[in-house]
């Protein structure tokens, strides 16, 4: 398999999961400005939408969209329990988390990551909304090490998004940093995630601190 990724983007999430599952894969960096891959290809030929992650399977087929890729990878090794069994209520809870993270957290960061395109109103309203959402996540983490009690692909997705709010260099104009003041459950979760070997491997590969 090949994982096409952009450093520090949401593609960090499947990058982490691939290491968690010890799957054989080749990480291929994509330049988000030129759309050229590290192996010299035009990324737009692979994904005309231009964004990562993109997973190329051994048979040449392509899988787009982070939540779909995460569940595909988890299902390759069901014994690792990174995703609950199909048709179980727990699986629907996982999908509930992935949809929430996509629509409320991932999209919530966009005005802060691209403030010029979003406009002043969008950027000013984004931070308090994200703060509310993170406060809710903090409450869900009370008494739990991970979002669903045990580690799942949802945690890798949340980590990839949350690290945007911890790296001020990503947003030089507007402060998108997520404050952990008073969010002790979230803070403990974040530090716990950062110490996972798979997270550290992915961060090292992508050149992130």
TrEMBL record:
Q: Kindly indicate whether the keyword Translocase belongs to this entry.
A: no
Task: Supply one GO molecular-function term.
Answer: transferase activity
CDD domains per record = GST_C_Beta, GST_N_Beta
Q: Which InterPro entries match?
A: Glutathione-S-Trfase_C-like (IPR010987), Glutathione-S-Trfase_C_sf (IPR036282), Glutathione_S-Trfase (IPR040079), Glutathione_S-Trfase_N (IPR004045), GST_C (IPR004046), Thioredoxin-like_sf (IPR036249)
By its UniProt entry, which SUPFAM superfamilies does this protein fall under? Answer: GST C-terminal domain-like, Thioredoxin-like
Q: Which terms are listed as keywords in the entry?
A: Transferase
Signal peptide residues are none
Cite the GST C-terminal domain residue spans from the record: 87-209
The chain positions of domain GST N-terminal read 1-81
Matching Pfam families: GST_C, GST_N_2
Record protein name field: Glutathione S-transferase
Q: Which organism is it from?
A: Comamonas terrigena
What lineage does UniProt assign to this protein's organism?
Answer: Bacteria, Pseudomonadati, Pseudomonadota, Betaproteobacteria, Burkholderiales
């Amino acid at each position: 398999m090949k994982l096409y990724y952009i450093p520090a983007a949401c593609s960090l999430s499947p990058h982490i999961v691939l290491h968690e599952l010890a799957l054989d894969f080749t990480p291929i960096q994509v330049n988000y400005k030129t759309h050229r891959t590290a192996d010299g290809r035009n990324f737009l030929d692979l994904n005309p939408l231009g964004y990562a992650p993109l997973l190329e399977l051994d048979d040449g087929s392509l899988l787009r969209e982070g939540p779909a890729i995460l569940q595909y990878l988890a299902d390759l090794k069901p014994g690792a329990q990174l995703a609950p069994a199909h048709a179980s209520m727990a699986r629907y809870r996982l999908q509930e988390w992935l949809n929430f993270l996509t629509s409320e957290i991932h999209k919530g960061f966009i005005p802060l990551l691209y403030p010029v395109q979003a406009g002043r109103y969008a950027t000013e309203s984004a931070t308090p909304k994200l703060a509310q959402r993170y406060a809710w996540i903090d409450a869900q983490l009370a008494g739990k090490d991970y979002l669903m009690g045990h580690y799942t692909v949802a945690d890798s997705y949340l980590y990839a998004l949350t690290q945007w709010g911890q790296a001020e260099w990503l947003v030089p104009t507007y402060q998108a940093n997520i404050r952990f003041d008073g969010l002790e459950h979230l803070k403990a979760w974040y530090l716990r995630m950062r110490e996972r070997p798979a997270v550290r491997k992915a961060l090292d590969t992508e050149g992130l601190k």
